[in-house]
Amino acid sequence: MKINPAVTQLSLYDIVGTPGVAADISHINSKAKVQGFAGPESLGEALKGCHLVIIPAGLPRKPGMTRDDLFKANASIVRDLIKACGEHCPKAVLNIISNPVNSTVPIAAEILKDMGVYDKNKLMGVTTLDVVRARTFYAEKTGAPVADVDVPVIGGHAGQTILPLFSQASPGHSMPEDVIAALTQRTQDGGTEVVQAKAGKGSATLSMAYAGALFADACLRGLNGEPNVKEYAYVQSNVVSGLSFFSTKVKLGPEGIAGISEYGTLNSVEQKALDACVPELKSSIEKGVAFAQGKV
């Protein structure tokens, strides 16, 4: 975000250590002015006047952990940060990266509703890393130039709720079902692949930083009035019956989400996968709502 030309003021917040990170990144020769804020007492000052807030806070995954294992700790962190956003920058676009996204976004929505400042068009769960992975893996398999590849990824942001639509990928390639199944599985298990490769010493941080910056840039371009800015995101939606949140392609504009796209025609394998992921997504959404309401 420091090198993004649309950023004029960059506020960094964490519990500890932020002034040092801010000093380090401030030496990059781009126009954004950087301030570092550490500790809960400085959170309000960090958020005041922000147009875009990116929340990647939380515990990283460790070997053997599912995103759901992170729920209680990260849900509390997101709850407290969202309350501060609702108080100090209620009109900001919010990008939620903190896992489990399938639950933390509904938590954020409930908190903001309780505060009377909820705008469904300004709350987005960042699923961009799933899209980035699907594009990379598809390009590797087909030999297509990765810069030319697009793969729709719908659903949610955990395990089988991540549904890459390789039948709609471009440029199109005919692939056997077992190859598509393997690509789908790898996309769904991308986070686990990194956790295991790091042997317990971290999770996906560099690729997530790239994906987060990519999505945030799209939000900024939309806020600045650039036409036809589209990305995939996990948002309040009625695209799938029975689900109040779902990830699909959204159009971004000066007020946040300016439109939500349908996901197109699925083949039989993809439809079966979508049918299987709906109950899990529904459960994750309900869990988030229950937490926000103090029932968990």
Automatic annotation (TrEMBL):
NAD among keywords: yes
GO molecular-function terms, A-Z: L-malate dehydrogenase (NAD+) activity
Residues the entry annotates as binding substrate: 61, 67, 99, 133
Catalytic activity: (S)-malate + NAD(+) = oxaloacetate + NADH + H(+)
Active site positions: 157
Origin superkingdom: Eukaryota
Keyword RNA-binding attributed: no
Gene Ontology cellular component list: mitochondrion
CDD domains per record: MDH_glyoxysomal_mitochondrial
Quaternary structure and partners: Homodimer.
Listed transmembrane segments: none
Entry keywords, A to Z: NAD, Oxidoreductase, Tricarboxylic acid cycle
Name of this chain's protein: Malate dehydrogenase
Pfam family, one: Ldh_1_N
Top enzyme class: oxidoreductase
